[in-house]
Fold each of these.
Amino acid sequence: MTKTVFITGASSGIGCATALYFYEQGWNVIATMRNPEKRRTLLHEKGLPDLVHLDVTDSASIQSALDYAVGKYQKIDVLVNNAGYAVYGPFESASPEQVTKQFATNVFGLMEMTRALLPYFRAQHEGLLINVTSMGGRIGFPLYSVYNSSKWAVEGFSEALQYELKSLNIRVKTIEPGVIKTDFYDRSLDRSAGTLAEDPYAAIQQRAQKSLGEGGMTSGSEPALVAKTIYRAATDGSRRLRYPVGTDAKMVNFLRAVLPAPWFFSVLEKFTLG
Ligand SMILES: NC(=O)c1ccc[n+]([C@@H]2O[C@H](COP(=O)([O-])OP(=O)(O)OC[C@H]3O[C@@H](n4cnc5c(N)ncnc54)[C@H](OP(=O)(O)O)[C@@H]3O)[C@@H](O)[C@H]2O)c1
């Protein structure tokens, strides 16, 4: 029987590449996005049949997208919680609204999506939950404190959740991309506003010019690499929890594992801030 994947944030980048890759492998793909009617995407051009409205901060839209998917395909085999973006900049200059919105999308939205799907997974006696976190989901990067804390939350959520879902035959996995060439560092980057009277963070921001989030993205991996890893996670039949993607993500995890913490922090600082 043809399998069905349900993806959030499929309008661009990793979500779009993942929708396309699963579609090419013959899966039914429920590609959800905030504005399927207004925003023309590659998935429209490729003729994917199920482009469905879903904003992860809007529970009603989650439920109606699920109703659509289950009504049409009866079963959802895999949920890919991909929707997300980053608040970037010094924590002190991020507004409370920016911080709240970051968690509302990356954490609470993902949890609500998961909560809404679990009854279906339980009823069908199986399911696979794949959460797209980040290499910044277990490691902190300069000026990404708000974003990294949201992704650490999802890593903790996923790791803990796997135990209670195991006996229900529902598996949990995380995908941890390194730097990927998408809209993430452009329209999906919400810079903290810099409302402070003086700017005590000018120096670190200047040092970060060449770092993550500041124009060095031409060297990142292609979203298709993440799509293939998500597909592997969906089809390898394993209970493996974490899938780092890209040489940068793998290298940073390796260094974190082998170096004493102070050494690791100074290597990371040198690498990201020069
Ligand atoms: N690119 C990287 O280097 C990188 C690295 C590690 C992890 N990630 C993670 O990968 C995921 C995808 O990011 P990307 O790199 O593919 O960036 P992207 O191209 O900017 O895609 C982000 C997607 O999230 C959607 N989104 C944002 N808020 C949403 C909401 N409230 N409800 C539903 N969808 C929402 C966006 O929809 P709209 O089109 O409506 O804005 C867009 O489809 C994110 O979770 C990100 O944190 C990215």
Amino acid sequence: MNYIIEKALDNKRIFPEEALILLREVDWTEIVHAGNEIRKRRYPQNKVGYTAYRIINYTNICSIQCSFCSFCRSRENPESFVLSLDQIRQKALEAKSLGVNQIFLQGGVHAGLPLNYYVDTLQMLTQELHVEVRAFSPVELVYIAKAHHMPLTDLLDLLKKAGLSSVPGAGAELLSDSMRQKLSPKKLSAKEWGDTMILCHEKGLPGSANIVFGSDETPKDIIEHLQVIRDIQDKTQGFLTFVAWTFQPQTPHFPIRHVTGQEYLKIIGLCRLFFDNISHIEVSLLGMGTSLGELGLYSGADDINSIVIEENVLKSHGLTTIEEAESFIKNAGFTPYFRRFNFD
Ligand code: SF4
């Protein structure tokens, strides 16, 4: 057995340079086997979690223009929108009628929205509808603070008081500055993203972390990303989950490569070996499909990254109901349990 895998199985932390060797040189089957072993030790009751939430994209107006994004529009574009409070309420009520009490608010970076828009939305969702809200990626938070000439720390206090309970790991993609230049030069640097996340965690706003890969990143870029996340977690313990996504084709000018099933599962296994400090490794059913998702649960993952209720009623590419999620997990050979955004 490879000595680095032995080390991980021996509950010893693996160094980034060792993770790089695993990624570059070690066969994927060895890594997923070890990832599965560690998952079994962590969760001897064979439990697999799922959660359910509705994403509400409150605006598609965005000044950042990431090269891979087809969602954003300029303010002048006739397809641009900003949802009213009533429209957001309506969408949250639709989710509630399906038994979904968690809302994930996500938008573009739109400097023209008044501060009250965010505060009123959070208050309406949490105080009137009593739903739990995860919202605003680090890039949204930084730009909202800038637009309103306020320190980020004050903005976080204000949003938390209004009802925000956790923040997504969105906008991280690949936290290596060379890749960020290609993905989105106007987005936060890796350090700015990390500092913002640390502040959120210190303010009592925990959340999730992710990686998005499958462009022209190198193995070194991937390990650099994992290292940034692990270092933040050592400081804050604010990440409850880590999920691996792949880039989806959206724009013609952003290079995407096909990520094979073996490569995806190898990343899942590697994450389980590398993240000795993050409880849950999620497999992305939405991005990779249910067949590969099932294998992900035997490669180190212990969570299926949710039923996500999509815009425009409630059409989803993955599992759409709690029953479907539970039966998927049972059929895969595990015991399902519902996980809230910020718990377990
Ligand atoms: S910041 Fe978000 S919405 Fe704006 S361009 Fe980038 S991915 Fe799209």
